[in-house]
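Figure 3 (text version): structure tokens given as input.
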């Protein structure tokens, strides 16, 4: 597990884990591409989906891909910021102590949808 000094896209909260995401719609494949640094010095989980960014399709594809990769129900993942933006914040509901190892494990073995 990363030390408290390493930037991480995951932030534990009382409700679960907040996840910063950088989404690429209209990609050639659905995939989790690891972590990407941003200009502000933070990091985001880099994710690509084949869905187009119209009528929430890319957001729905993002949630479906992450739910499958993390083995959580789609209903456990909520988009809390960035619905119309490539930079998004998600909340994965549940016990943060139980979720963090699962989310971090997905970074070590990225999945394709």
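Below: residues designed for each position.
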């Amino acid at each position: 597990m990363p030390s408290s000094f390493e930037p991480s896209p995951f932030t534990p909260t009382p409700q679960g884990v907040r996840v910063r995401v950088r989404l690429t719609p209209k990609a050639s494949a659905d995939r989790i591409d690891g972590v990407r640094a941003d200009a502000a010095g933070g990091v985001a989980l880099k994710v690509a989906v084949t869905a187009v960014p119209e009528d929430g399709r890319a957001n729905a594809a993002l949630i479906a891909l992450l739910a499958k990769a993390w083995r959580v129900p789609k209903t456990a993942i909520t988009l809390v910021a960035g619905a119309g933006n490539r930079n998004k914040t998600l909340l994965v509901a549940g016990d943060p102590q139980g979720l963090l190892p699962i989310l971090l494990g997905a970074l070590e073995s990225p999945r394709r949808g």
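The first strand starts at residue 10 and ends at 13.
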